[in-house]
Specification:
heterodimer, A: mainly alpha, B: alpha+beta, 12 strands
Amino acid sequence: MNRYYLYLILLNMLINVIMFVPKILIEYRYNGAVMGTLIAIPIGFSLNVLFTKAITKFPEKGFPEIFARSRKRWIINLLFGIISFAAFTAGLISLLGFVDILRRFVNPEMSFMYLLSVFLAGILLITKLSTERVMYLLEIVLFLNTPLILFIIFKAFTSDYLVWDSILEVGTHLFTKPSLKAIAAASYIFAGYTNLIIFNRIIKGKIKGWNFIMVFFLGLFNLFTTFFIPIGFHGSDGAQEYLYPWISTSDSLRLVYSPIERVIFLFLIFYMGITLMSVSVHWHLSYELIKGTYKESKKKDWAVLAVFACISVACALFFHTLLLNKITVHWMLSRFGLEIIVVGLFYIWARRQKT
Amino acid sequence: MPTIAVEQIKERLKGKIPKAADVVFKELHTKEKYLEVFYIKSISDEAVLHDKLYKPFFEQQHPDEFKNYLESIPQIKSYETEEKTINEILNGVAILFYQDSVLLFDSKVDRNNSVLDTTVETTIQGPQSGFSESLPTNLGLIRKRYPEAFLNVELTTVGKISKTEVMILHDTRYADPKTLNKIKDFLSNVNIQMFQTGEQLLDAIKKSNRALFPVMLVTERPDRVAVNLATGKVILLVAGSPFAVILPTVMKDFMASMADIYQTYWVGRFLLLLRYIGFIISVCLPGLYVATTSYNPEIYRVQLALSIAGSRNAVPYPSFIEVLLMLFMMEMLTEASIRLPKAIGPTATTVGGLILGQAATEAGLVSNIMIIIVSAVAISNFVVPINAFSFSVRIVKYFILASATFFGIVGVVIGFFIFIAYLVKLDSFGEPFLTLVQSKPHKE
């Protein structure tokens, strides 16, 4: 088992709650989300397998190292730029989304910028670490937080207020025509493999088959939890009333004997670490790809990070929750398309490479 | 060597070493032969000189016989350069001028070679004695615990003025040659005038000479050194210091006490877990208190939130001032109890702990719960077994406190992860300071 590989996938599976995936799925629950989810599983999973297989042909190499000797620099730079932008925006959406959640549920009177700044400080620090160190940190954060999330999921599944009838009711819409948006959103669950673009640097050896089996079942379970638990708690009609279905769901849970009674706080504390790491991992990927397009220079490194920070501040000023939600839907669609193109091209390219 | 050269050397040495009260230049005569001895009395062992030099000199009549004797005893070295010889004299070596040769007679006095008891890293069971302040004795202690032919000892000096002898020990089978080279480079580049003890290296590791966290372990226990040698670590012994330096050191080593080996498995694990929990508590608790009283009291269930708020009822200022006040008092108390003579140490803690704590609450300056938190923080801080590390941790809680003061609960969590990220960023001679599974990833 390659634990680093699984961490990357798991991180994406956890962060989908912040990335509006449940919101999008629940919005289309009568209009093809169920079928869409079912279709997204094989698509997402096979993209995952194809890409992983292709990139593990180049052991301990990230994209910048793999394409270091390529002659057509401008194509490579363009490609790096696009992927880097996609990764950056992925991080940005979850960052803005989560800061918005914090402001709504934890510190309503605190300004958005204020909260954003503490996150940015942490994220930029982590982004600048070496790839290996980011992974070590990710491992520690997951180790500290995973018991909490397992506990919360356990609590959710065993709660008396989880109504299975609502879930079944949504299940009856299985055969509606699948919606593309739902497919794109649901396939995001499996998209953690894209982090291998950089993090392949620390993956040693082949990734064995049963890693994929793990990914498949984790993804299945994760999609089910993400999609259906809020419906079970809020009813098949009520679920769409919420801006952040999962946060509201966690607020419906109560720990009777714990000093912290409302699960939402546990949930948010847990997600602070996960969001921090997820954004850092995405931005680290983006940062390293951009670094791959120019020769080593400390000034440029700092400039890239400064640009990251400035864009996030600008976006924070410009976007509000609803707009962010709308943009995320389009982002999901374009990400889905880009992913298919990149994975397809890279797979073909890697096959022609004789290594 | 021609006689003129010998005379020249003699004169030059005499000229270089000023006539201090303890500089001795002696001439010994018998009928057949003639010997001159030059040494510094306070750092040379006159008993050795007497037994090994004067006695045979007067017992053996024939000049050649005595020369043979001199050449055969192990304390004798031959003269190399003037500079080296002066260094040797200053270290307690006697210079002999006999016939037409100049010889160096090792008569260094070995003071402070009594083995001390451990006082900093105490354990309930296991060996109780530490190092002495003498380099050869310390090396002997280690060799006794580590009787392996692979134990390699190298000698260098550190310190511009002090020229302190430093021994580099490692097991050639286990130690990573790359790390060893890094350590040697580091030692030769250290810029210290007076090098007295290994702890001084802790700061020298950074370019700015300002480090927050130690990345090498300073220990007073020979058993810890022996155990670490077997895991491939490099050991530095410093002359005149009863502490050894272990490199490279990662966080796991700082959290380990030697007692862990001397306990049963589950007891050891339990103690280890306890230490990590104590570490997290001492770092996070003050910040958490500020965050949950001033920003998010709704995190706790109503009864608890009310009882905390009720206890703070009389306190006339915001929680972060309360915390700062009490932490400050606590640090004062800790510092004071280190400096005080042992006889009145307990008095200070009683006065500080009981009376101040009680009185402060009754006067309405701090809440009851605050007293509990401060004591919890202080106690759990001392659970960390290595002192240098627990001092660093003491500082970090103020960082988290500040971040909690500004950002509430978000500040605590993010501050804590930034702190962890900083630890992950640190490395000790190429070894990452903090990882969950402390092994290099190529073992996958």
